[in-house]
Amino acid sequence: MKLNEKGLLIVISGPSGVGKGTIRKALFKRAGHNLDFSISMTTRSPREGEIDGQDYYFVTKEKFEAELARGNLLEHAKFVNNYYGTPKDKVMEKLKEGKEVVLEIEVQGALQVKAKMQDAVFIFIAPPSWEALESRLVNRDTETSDIIIERLNKAKNEIMFASSYDYIVINDEVENAVDKIIAIIRAEHAKCKRALEGYYRLMEE
Amino acid sequence: MKLNEKGLLIVISGPSGVGKGTIRKALFKRAGHNLDFSISMTTRSPREGEIDGQDYYFVTKEKFEAELARGNLLEHAKFVNNYYGTPKDKVMEKLKEGKEVVLEIEVQGALQVKAKMQDAVFIFIAPPSWEALESRLVNRDTETSDIIIERLNKAKNEIMFASSYDYIVINDEVENAVDKIIAIIRAEHAKCKRALEGYYRLMEE
Hints:
The first copy, chain A, is of the alpha/beta class and 205 residues long.
């Protein structure tokens, strides 16, 4: 019996290199869930094969800044002169349809979302050890050792922000982390603050 | 990886006839969990075959009142001139050992526990409909129709107290309700307020 018909906004976040993307992909592969991606808005040009409204919402700088001004970005950042952000109206639409919207973002972005969507579920993905995080960063052979040291230092700062999240899930094994996230989603739907109104409505019928 | 080494106090509660006992039994049958009962203290005499410290802690009225006076009862009630209650020290011991202590109690008792153990997890077991609750009460052939009407009226009052609980789980199907409770236990252990201290300790090692 489903009491909470609105979907959840699930923010999966954590330091760079922790394996957020791997967990998110494994989570979507599990059956029986009504998960959906949040699609970002960006001012960068589409690469070959990228489709507007699917990979990104591709917009002009003027349009992005207008959306920003009217408060329609749950979070945003600027990289190499291009904006990237999460449009609030698109997320709200999906939540209303009952979809669980998964937002896989950096810690900075998650803290921005937290200020705007108190009702979202914030999950901090944490490395099982500093060595594990370092070896993951080293194995991405695109990074130089300077960048790796910088990322590790950033991660040490970022785990202090875990206290702003609702849950902490250690990425010791991907499937184990996914099990925990699924348990969190189930539990959150059973929370009185989300389900009680629906229950009282059901009992009045 | 276990970050929260302390067990949880899990309060399973709801109206009379909702099926709390059935759910609790089915929950304990599931493998891979570290659940334990809370044993009540009572002033009534042991029935044949009942063992002190296993079925109940059997105590004198004076002993019970002394425990009450020193604040060692998480909840208590008096039925037919006998006291029944949950001794706090015994519960705390088990939690320290890492056991999840399950307390299956009436709504009145749960509200007493809530005032004393803010850290406990409160789960309200709710009937899927008034008809379902009524037919469960009717099937307990020990009750007269007067008692059934009285219990239904009490239940209508009690579901208003669900808002004091953390979670609401509808007993539509026992195994389904048990799945939800297990998800709640997993999620609660991953809560930052319970797990973060352990995580920081781990990362400092």
